Amino acid sequence: MKNIKIKYLLSIISMALLVLGVFSSCSEDSADSGSGTLTITSVAKAEEGDLVPVTQGDPKNYYIIRGSGFTTVEKIYFNDFDTYFNPVLVTDTEIFVLIDEKTPYADASSKLKVVTKLGTIVYDFVISPPSPTFGSFNPINAVEGDVITIYGNYFLNPIVKVGAESVPVISSTLTEIKIKLPAGADKKYISVSNISGTATSTDAIGCAIYDDVFWGIDGVGGWGVSNTNIENTTREEVAQGDKAIKVDITPWSGFQIDMWANGGHPVPANAIGIKFQMKLKAAAKMRVVVGGDWGHEVWFNLTSEYATYVVKWSDLGMAVAPATIGQIVFGSDGTATTFYIDNLGFALK
Question: How far apart are CA 302 and CA 308, in angstroms?
């Protein structure tokens, strides 16, 4: 209540005192009295400063419903969700109420309904979803005309952009969106917006080395590895898309990805390094070597949960991005474990 403009706070406190009987005792008849006109004129967020009418509300925030005839209020509904209110915080002209965090926002009526002994009044009011979250999209190395799937959450009436260009949505649910890539999408990021905010992909289009399949490599191998499965489909072992790389590895061994053919794998000019998501069956250290340069191996502490890691060119002793790379090695320390590698590609500036 500390953020409500003082004149509205005073009116609510006065009502509370009246209800508690400090000023006078209330009879049943007086409890039913009021302006006699039931109407909602506005809804405003309860915050410091002037009360500004709004047409949408955020769950877990307080709002002031303004109008008249509220003295005998019995029920309040947002999107047909029965919402608790404290009758002490009700006057004939104002209701102070918290929008419950469980209030539905999808496939909802977009109505505020106040039920009183005088009748019921319905008012247009939208419950905002949480801001979208962007998990991933697949395939990353899509080209113009390809249909890609975006994964995340809170995709209510989504607006999708590739770079700065708005793209039509083919289909969407709260957790998935399908779009067709426009021309000029390469190396651009994808963003999804709803009425509450915007989320942007962490990967740029066309920057994958492995994304369910390998792109532009000669083959995989290594030493001390077994049970290599580059098309793993166990959901809990996948970070992005539908598949991941799974490698059982012995101590001080390496899983090797070769890209020497045709001069090596091209590197985007604005790449700052190699990016990948990875976890281990048991927490341990592992190292990454790029281009066969064992003088600049980079060590990481990994856990049994997926996380995103970046090997910068500067970590590898390079002042600028190379034109191509020919090899990536994921090496184990003295622990026998299982590697899970996903979403391997380039990190851009």
Answer: 10
56-84 per-position pLDDT tens digit = 999 999 999 999 999 999 999 999 999 99
Measured distance CA(296)–CA(293) in Å, rounded: 6
Tell me the domain boundaries of the chain: 6-127, 133-200, 208-348
- The CATH architecture annotation of domain 208-348 reads Sandwich (2.60)
- Tens digit of each residue's pLDDT (9 = 90 or more) over 113-146: 999 999 999 999 999 999 999 999 999 999 999 9
Which residue has tokens 């997926």? 306
Domains 6-127 and 133-200 share a fold: yes
Q: How far apart are CA 11 and CA 21, in angstroms?
A: 15
Q: What is the DSSP letter of 48?
A: S
Strands 126-127 and 56-57: parallel
The answer to whether 53 and 81 are in contact (CB under 8 A) is no
* CATH class held by domain 133-200: mainly beta
Three-state DSSP class for 275? Answer: strand
Look up residue 258 and give its two tokens.
């070769």
CATH of domain 6-127: 2.60.40.10
pTM score over 0.90? no
